[in-house]
Design a protein that fits this description.
Rossmann fold, single chain, 133 residues, two-stranded parallel sheet, alpha/beta, 4-stranded mixed β-sheet
Length: 133
């Protein structure tokens, strides 16, 4: 089961519609709730975040995750990553890893495949960590 928290009701309506289209709504529980205030579920396998303040969720994730559970967050700025990693260390998470993602488009042609000459790049960072019992 997937539990999805969002404080924006419109986002939840769009998500519900998309889940219905994909025929997976039986596997997802949408919650109109502020995850910075806590996670109701316990013994979950993973907490995956795409939000501006993932470090605020770390204590809640620690309580919600099962032993060996995984924390993952996506952040567009390194300042967010630093705050998140600091909080993960404070809460004794292990195997903390940060990966930068870069988007680079390619031109594909017979005998001439290469990255585009002009690129407007975008970068982001993914933080991984594991809760140890």
């Amino acid at each position: 089961m997937v539990y999805s928290y969002d404080i924006n009701e419109n986002s939840l309506k769009v998500a519900a519609k998309n889940l219905e289209i994909l025929r997976v709504s039986d596997y997802v529980v949408l919650k109109n709730s502020d995850i910075t205030q806590g996670i109701e579920e316990t013994e979950v396998d993973a907490v995956i975040l795409d939000m501006p303040v993932p470090w605020l969720i770390v204590p809640h994730a620690k309580k919600a995750l099962r032993g060996g559970g995984i924390f993952v967050s996506f952040s567009p700025t390194i300042e967010q990553v630093i705050r998140t990693v600091t909080k993960l260390r404070e809460h004794k998470f292990h195997d903390i890893e940060v990966v930068e993602t870069l988007l680079r488009r390619w031109r594909i042609g017979k005998g001439a495949s290469r990255p585009e000459t002009f690129t407007v790049g975008h970068t982001g960072f993914i933080v991984f960590a594991r809760k140890v019992s």
